[in-house]
Inverse folding.
């Protein structure tokens, strides 16, 4: 198989990060995407998450395919599932450019995009077309609120109605640092109201179906805030939690020239914090709420550590910026080898066995 990404990488890395991303999306939407390969899945990686059968537990995180332009191309690359979005009810330009900054020395990225997307109507039509074509594979929808919305909780309810019957699951993204005030929805009173209203919206929009509902958390929550989230997730019966999003923290170890830029930091500098937060949330929920591990995953060892710490599945994005699409195949190969080494027949057998 031709290493198409390897050939294109020098040019992509020389470009503005957002321009490079747009070019990558066009490539994935073209016949050339077939040259990127994907390969099969080791049998021990097949798993079930929230009632959904997955060929493997490695997912594409939200943020890459914001507007549902290439979900099936991503599935063909070897991802077990794909999360599109974040999508807001109305189209939104996001923050001024430049707003994505590579920290190559740190294998990280800082972004302050601010939920730039085509809006629910356009994205819904893309998913409707996908459904009519009978496309297979798990595609979840990450929902957000418009920056200028007077009732942000209502925006999430609108999102549920807009995508009713189209999302394999829905994620309530209240943890992006790039929409002012959004993270306040993680406070106990606000989160209590949010979950109640969104679950009610799901009941009205998807009567009899009830696709899983997940909440995506910031990695910057303190212990008391994590305890509140765990309590509410259990009380309301939230289907799962994604741990977590980008961080507003800046480790002293950062070396990249753009390390002082505002926005959310992702990639390798987030790895240790994300892993520790996952352990905390698994302990607080007693393993009763399925967890998605995300943040700094760049190897089979990283994915295995999240699973052992309590994640049923994992997601990645930033690592692809530096390693390219072949990383997905390598992660799956190495994860399967680690499961076999330690005597786990399936991914599920290893969850929480830290």
């Amino acid at each position: 198989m031709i290493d198409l990404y390897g050939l294109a990488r020098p040019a992509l890395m020389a470009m503005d990060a957002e321009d490079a991303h747009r070019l990558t999306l066009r490539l994935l939407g073209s016949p050339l995407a077939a040259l990127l390969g994907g390969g099969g899945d080791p049998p021990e990686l097949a798993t079930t998450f929230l009632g959904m059968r997955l060929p493997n537990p490695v997912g594409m995180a939200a943020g890459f395919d914001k507007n549902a332009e290439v979900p099936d191309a991503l599935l063909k690359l070897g991802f077990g599932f794909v999360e599109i979005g974040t999508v807001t009810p109305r189209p939104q330009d996001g923050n001024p450019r430049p707003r994505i900054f590579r920290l190559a020395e740190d294998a990280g990225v800082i972004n302050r995009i601010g939920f730039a997307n085509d809006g629910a109507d356009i994205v819904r039509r893309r998913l409707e077309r996908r459904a009519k074509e009978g496309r297979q594979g798990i595609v979840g929808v990450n929902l957000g609120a418009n920056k200028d919305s007077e009732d942000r909780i209502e925006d999430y309810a609108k999102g549920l109605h807009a995508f009713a019957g189209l999302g394999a699951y829905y994620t309530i993204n209240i943890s992006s640092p790039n929409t002012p005030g959004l993270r306040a929805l993680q406070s106990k009173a606000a989160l209590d109201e949010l979950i109640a209203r969104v679950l009610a919206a799901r009941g009205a929009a998807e009567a009899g179906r009830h696709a899983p509902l997940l909440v995506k958390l910031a990695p910057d929550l303190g212990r008391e805030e994590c305890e509140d989230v765990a309590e509410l997730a259990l009380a309301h019966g939230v289907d799962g939690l994604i741990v977590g999003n980008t961080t507003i923290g800046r480790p002293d170890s950062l070396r990249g020239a753009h390390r002082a830029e505002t926005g959310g930091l992702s990639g390798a500098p987030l790895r240790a914090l994300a892993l520790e937060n996952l352990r905390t949330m698994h302990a607080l929920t007693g393993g009763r709420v399925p967890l998605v591990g995300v943040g700094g995953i760049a190897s089979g060892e990283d994915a295995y550590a999240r699973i052992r710490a309590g994640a049923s599945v994992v997601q990645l994005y930033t690592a692809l910026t530096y390693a390219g699409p072949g990383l997905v195949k390598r992660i799956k190969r190495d994860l399967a080898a680690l499961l076999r080494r330690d005597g786990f027949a399936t991914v599920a057998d290893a969850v929480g066995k830290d």
